Every structure is written in structure tokens, then in C-alpha cells.
Amino acid sequence: MIVDVYDTYAPTENGGRMHFDVFLPTGCEAGSDEKAAEIARFWLRSIGLNPERTILELCRYCHSETLNTAVGEHVASQGWFILPMESCPHLIPEPYSLPIN
């Protein structure tokens, strides 16, 4: 599966900066900066941060890539995936891709 990767940054509570990627299926209607930002805010809420107070510093399209099978299956079934990178909490709830209701 090929996905669009959105490079995303948000401030941490200690004044640092958290970096994570939002994966969305390539070519789908959902693949946009706005949709990626919506998912990023949802994920921030799922890890206990208030997305109304946590302003996304950056959430924009970075590149497209082919995923490994496990992550690709996850995106296919859930519609998105979060890849925590720098300064993200160590206790991240499973699955990274929670349904948005």
C-alpha cells in the first residue's frame, strides 16, 4: 500500500516539540492537510493532550511511500496511522490508529 506522509509537530507540555507522522492512503479523498490535522488532533486527545490548547505547529504533506505489510493492513482497515517519532510519550495506546466517531 502507498500512503501520503504528513510531517507533524506539536508543542509538548514541558516546552519542547513533539514530532510524529500521519499516514493517509494515497489518492483518497481523505488525503489532505486538513484531514491529517484532524487525525493529529484526535490522536493528541487519545494520548491525553488537549488539542484545543495544543496547536499543531506544522502538519503538511511530506512524501509518499510504500508501507510494510503490517502497517499497510492497518491503514487499509482503519484509514490512517500515526508513527510517533521524537518526544512522543512512551506509553502510546494501541492501536495507533483509533477510529474517529
Q: How would you describe the overall organization of this protein?
A:
By secondary structure, the protein is α+β, with helices and mostly antiparallel strands. It has a single domain (2-86), classed as NE1680-like fold, CATH 3.10.510. The chain is built from two helices and four strands, in the order E-E-H-E-H-E. The protein has helices spanning 33-46, 69-78, and strands at residues 2-11, 17-25, 58-66, 81-86. It has a four-stranded antiparallel sheet. The model has no long low-confidence stretch (mean pLDDT 78).
> Cα-atom Rg, whole angstroms?
13 Å
Report strand order across the widest sheet.
Answer: 3-1-2-4
CATH superfamily: NE1680-like
Annotated CATH architecture:
Roll
What share of the residues does DSSP label as strand, in percent?
A: 25-35%
Name the features.
101 residues, alpha+beta, NE1680-like fold, four-stranded antiparallel sheet, 2 helices, 4 strands, 34% strand, globular
Write a compact overview of the structure shown:
With 101 residues, this protein is α+β, with helices and mostly antiparallel strands. It has one domain: NE1680-like fold.
Secondary structure: elements and pairs:
Elements: E1 2-11, E2 17-25, H1 33-46, E3 58-66, H2 69-78, E4 81-86
Antiparallel strand pairs: 1-2, 1-3, 2-4
